[in-house]
Structures are given as C-alpha cells and as structure tokens.
Records
---
Amino acid sequence: MKKIGLDAGHGLYTSGKQTPDGIKEWTLNDAVCDKIEEILRDYDCIVIRTDNNEGKVDESLSRRVNAYVTAGVDAFVSVHHNAYTGKFSDVTGVEVYTDRTPTAKDERLAECIYKRLVKYTGLKGRGIKRANFAVINQNKVPAVLCEGGFMDGSFDYKIITSNEGQKNYARAVAEGLIEFLSLKKKTESGEKTEVIYQVWENVKNKWLPNVEGKNDYAGNFKNAVCCVRANLTKGNIYYKVHVMRRGGKAARWLPEVKNREDYAGNYGQPIDAVAFRTDTGKTLCYMAHERKSGRWLPVVTGYNEADAKNGYAGNFGNEIDAVKVYFK
Ligand SMILES: [Zn+2]
C-alpha cells in the first residue's frame, strides 16, 4: 500500500496569508486537500495529512517534514495559493516547485502534477520552478509544493474560491499522484465491490462523512436524515428517497438518482423511506433506522415502491435517522 504525505500550507491564524478580502490561505488549501483525499479514497493508498486538520495550529515546517519522512511516505505534496502584492491585480497563474537540488523523482512528480494543473484549472502555466522551501527541502522523499493560483489575482480569485475550481486543482494533484505512484483503483487491486455512501442530516445541517462496509452506517441517531448520496467502487448504484409532508408539500417519492450525479432528497425535509438498487448482479442489502422507535427496520433487498415489505426501507410517517447499505 503506497503512502502519501499531503499538506495544506499554513494555518487558520497565519497572519498575512489571505485574499485581499480576508479568506485565509489555509482555508483554500484545506478545501483542495479534502477533495484530493476524497478522490484518493478509491485508490490503494493511505493519505497522511501533515497540517493541523482544523487549521488551529500552523504546524512548523520542520514538524511537517519530520511527520512525512518518519511515516515513510512515497510522495509528498504541499498545497498552496500564491500572492503577489496583497491587493487585487491581473497577476495570474499556477506553479509547481521542487527544491533547489531536485532528484529525478522530484522532477517527475512535479511534471505529473504541473501538466494537469495548467490543463484542469485553465490558468496560465508559470512553469516548474525551484526554491528552497523548507517543507520540501529534503532528498529522501519525492516532494513538491504547488501554487494553484493567486489569491490577489482578480481572475484567479474567482476560480480558487469556487467549488469547481477547487475540484479541478484537487483532480490535478490526485491524478498526478495516481500517475506518479501507479496507484490502482481499489477494485482493480482485488478488493471487493463496496457501497460508499453518506447522508445529510437536519440538526447539524450538513453532509456526514462517507462510510462503507457492513459494520458501519450513515447517520446520527435522533437527527433526521434528509438526503442520501452514494456510489460503488465498481458499477452503478441507483436510489431514491421518500420525503415527508412539509408545509403545503405532499409526501412523495423523489426522482431516482444515479451514483453521485446528484443526491436524493431536499435539504431540510426529512425522509421516511429509501430504496437502492445496483447493476452489479450482486445482492444489495439496506436498512433504515427509525428515529422515533430507535430501532433498525428489517433488511430490504428489493426495489419496488409498491412492495412495502421488501421494496423499500422505512415506514411512511416515521423519520429515518440512519441508513445502512452493503453487499451481502
Ligand atoms: Zn502559501
């Protein structure tokens, strides 16, 4: 299993490192790193973050280096955003850095990421450069530092603060690492197909982390689930939810969703039933946990609105607060 060191540069309270209107660089770096981790979750690798994952502490550069070198990672990437004068201007572009005395592997890692960074972000390529950045300044582990656009570039700002732009930055780094380390998708490396899924709950008003496997479930008991999102490590999953009556809106099944092309549900509107199916030919099992009774309802394997026994999981009128989905 390959190991990757991933670093969101700086911390939430690092002075000076921010957009002209005060968005902290770490926040942008962290958003990209989270998206990189999400992509790499499907590959046969382990990602080790070397920054403080809440941004509370700006870990020293020597601690970051020490963390990834002692962990024995196969590659290290530090994610940053650039700044020029600190005031908005037309400065623009992306860069990838190696240290001043790069190894051949440093250079290849830089190349794997740089070509994609230019392509996916659509920003000007300012080149692969060398600098004595302490966080990459060792020759034991292939290491690069990426600058994914200027926080004070009027054009770059719009891209780097958008979800789409951050996704593109993440894709460039993740796919660069996949090429550099020849990472394989988990299913290709012989692991069995899994459902990866998550729910949105209406107390915290947010998506809970993705879960997978027979021993886990998505949800916080007592907090009603409103939305579901899922994919398989191989093949397609289709699913839908039944929303409860709210205000003038009737209870009803919402349209079926495929993989993560969308999510099933409406934010703020609890659901009382779910249904899942796949095109894998394998038996998919799923269960709903009732908020009111505090119990798991029976396992369901079918997919049929008309079949209250084995066509969906849930009892109309009773909120669901957790969902469990797995292959038999
Ligand atoms: Zn930085």
---
Amino acid sequence: MHRPTDNLRADHELTTRGVRVLAAIADWVAAGDEFPTADCASVLRFLREWVLAVHMRKEDEVMAPAVAMLADDDTAAVVGELLRLHEEITELAHSLVLFWEPIGDLTSSERSGFTETVRALVARLERRQQLEEDSLFPACDANVPGDDQLEWLESFAQLEAERGSRAVWVARIDALVTRWPI
Ligand SMILES: [Fe+2]
C-alpha cells in the first residue's frame, strides 16, 4: 500500500532540493554578488505556496493531530515542537517578502539581513524535517489504523489539486537546480 508517510517522504525530497537552492542563493548574496531577483522570488514562492500551503498542511492538519492522540506522550511532545517550528518558519518566510522585488541592488545591511534570515529559515526547515522522519512518521506507521490513513491520501490529493501539485513544482525546482547546483 502507498502510505501517507511515503507521500510525505517524497515531498521531503523535493523540499530538500528547494531549500538547498535557497541556501545556495544566500551564499551567493553573502559573497557580494548581484542579487538574483527572479530565482529568489521563485524559490520563496515555492516555500510559501507549496511547502507551507500544501506540504505542511498535509502534516499539521491531516496527520499530526491523529498521531498525537494515538501515539505516546513523547510523540505528542514532538508534535508540539513541529507546530512551534511551523510558526517560526511562517514568520521567517513572511519577513523575506521584502526581497521579492527589491528596487536596485541591496545595501550591505540588507544583504546580511537576507542571509541571516535565510540561514535561520533553512535551519528550522531541516530540523522540522528531521523530527518528522525520526519520530512523526514512524509513530504514524505504528499507531494509526490503515483505514484512517486511506482518507488522508484523499485529503492530500485534494490539497495538491487546490493549491499546486508536487509534479508541477518538481519541474520548477529542477530548472532552478540547473542554475544553482546543489
Ligand atoms: Fe515535512
């Protein structure tokens, strides 16, 4: 059976590639090179429109509440930590909105603000993904009945249909990776 955790692990492969492109852009900007406006806007759109609005909603609205209820206290604590990281990631992504269409080249303080914010964001995205793969997904596979999980796959497909599919974003991120080798 194709499980929800398999679907989310496939999401993580794409997210990891997008996050590495963002980190590569931050390194480029930190080195003083010209700000890559279009590519930066594309990868920030990916974060906002797909990682936050599709992938994390699959996890936090569909999967995590059931896992927190059915698994042990340690897993419930991990779910709390995941939600806290989700809030921080949302705030950090929002604070990068200034850099979507910067007018002219950035000042040195804008450059350092950008790179520090991106690095904080990347660290939280990586930490969240690690916690999910180490704790949330194994707890889901071990504790949630298969019938419940079948409905989740339908909810996942619905979210992708409404907000954007993984397949569409794979093509876009592949195009970015040709310019930002990771
Ligand atoms: Fe995730």
